[in-house]
Amino acid sequence: MSDRPRVVVVGAGFAGFGACEALAGADVDIVLVDRHNYNTFQPLLYQVATAGLNPGDIAYPVRAYASSHPRLRFRQDEVASVDFAAHRVSFVEGPPIGYDFLVLAAGAGTAYFGVPGAKEHSRAIYTMEDAVAVRDLVLEAVERAASHGVSDGDLTVVIVGGGPTGVEMAGALAELRQMEFATHYADLEPSLSRIVLLEQQDRLLGAFHPKLSAYGLAVLEHRGVEVRCGEALKEVHGDRAVLASGEVVPCGLVIWAAGVGPAALTEALVLPKVRGRIEVADDLRVRGLDDVFAVGDMAAATPVNGVLLPQLAQPAIQEGRHAGEQIRRMLAGEETVAFRYRDKGIMATIGRRAAVAQLPGGVRLRGTPAWLAWLGLHIVFLLGVRNRTSVLLNWAWRYVSWGRGPRVIAGG
Fold first, then answer.
1. How far is CA 332 from the centre of its chain?
2. Which of 123, 241, 356, 385 would you label with 155, given CA atoms 20 to 30 Å apart?
3. Interatomic CA distance for residues 246 and 10, integer angstroms
4. Which of 121-125, 188-192, 284-288, 293-297 is least confident?
5. Separation between Cα atoms, residue 44 and residue 51, nearest integer Å
């Protein structure tokens, strides 16, 4: 205990770490709370789900991070409620703690948009547990097919959502199919495995320029992915997906990549909301609360055009840092300033030497240049020298040899 102001940061993701970084060296005590004891580099979860990387390659221990910040303490727990009047956070297990400033950065959940059976019978890829579960299901299906034969749909994967997550997942599964069937499952015909990508809009990668979208579509189709643009999912069952057109696709797995929704904590907190996210002022403080900030996926932050910022890594990092900077300003007796988002562009990889990138200033890349830019950016933003080295060596080895990756069924 000390006389310094206490800042409680809920969530050890991009936004939470951004807030902690901005507060480093400030005369405050920081309590960082998360239900996991590691930070997940979410942009590479799909590579864990397709057995391209090990879970440990994209996870960074929070206590290792905290050890480099003398006034930061980590608490592994889950927030149950917040008493904003009493300035107190209550937890599922441990005792409550008070705060002088609170930063809500607990991320998002999965939005199923009311599709019957989607929540019960599909798999999202938003957490490490999700990615490992999908990896095991994919590998188990292939092993069963090799040992016992293939029934209709056993090796069919339906991916719902043609944004970056869905496109990256489809491309990675296509590569996995190509490598595995050629090297370890020679008795299985590649035609027995189907990858079906559904996108409700008329094109993939809707946030990208139409030429980049067309390139992504061409690459996926060339690699054997069945892309259905303008096609919605009507309902999901344990062994099939029913499309809005009436087509029934027998399948062993439905992967949900159609979007994110509010986190459980966001829904539980009695705060003003905008489209499921917490309403914030232009400085990212929660409406009506001078000492509480909402950042990242939890916040309904809007840049100058009035459109909600996407729930991606860069907005989360920048919002988290801004919240930390505003707390420092308030402690110094200064006025807060409005948040301004700096658009650094968007990227998506489709697989080996195929990617798209849309950068500020109208710069558009595709193919190998975009792929190399994507690789470099993700290496830079990974936490920890060990993780960067492991991922870089893994990618280099796969590129040179297309050799065996971490394709083991470990989740039981």
1. 35
2. 356
3. 44
4. 188-192
5. 11
Could you say which of 3.40.50.1240, 3.50.50.60, 3.20.20.80, 3.40.50.300 is the CATH number of the domain covering 6-35+77-110+261-331? 3.50.50.60
CATH number belonging to domain 118-258+345-401: 3.50.50.100
Residues 124-144 have pLDDT tens digits of 999 999 999 999 999 999 999
Report CA torsion sign: 207, 213, 219, 221. Answer: positive
Token output for 238: 């344990």
pLDDT of 405 strictly over 70: no
Tell me if 286 sits within 8 A of 278, measured CB to CB: yes
Q: Just list the catalytic residues.
A: 168
Q: Are 81 and 57 in contact (CB under 8 A)?
A: no
CATH 3.50.50.100 boundaries in the chain: 118-258+345-401
Count of positions (residues) in the chain: 412
- Read off the DSSP letter of residue 56: G
* Position 395 confidence tier, pLDDT thresholds 50, 70, 90: confident
Written as six digits, the tokens of 385 are 């020298």
Distance CA 297, CA 278 (A): 9
Cα 391 versus chain centre, distance: 18
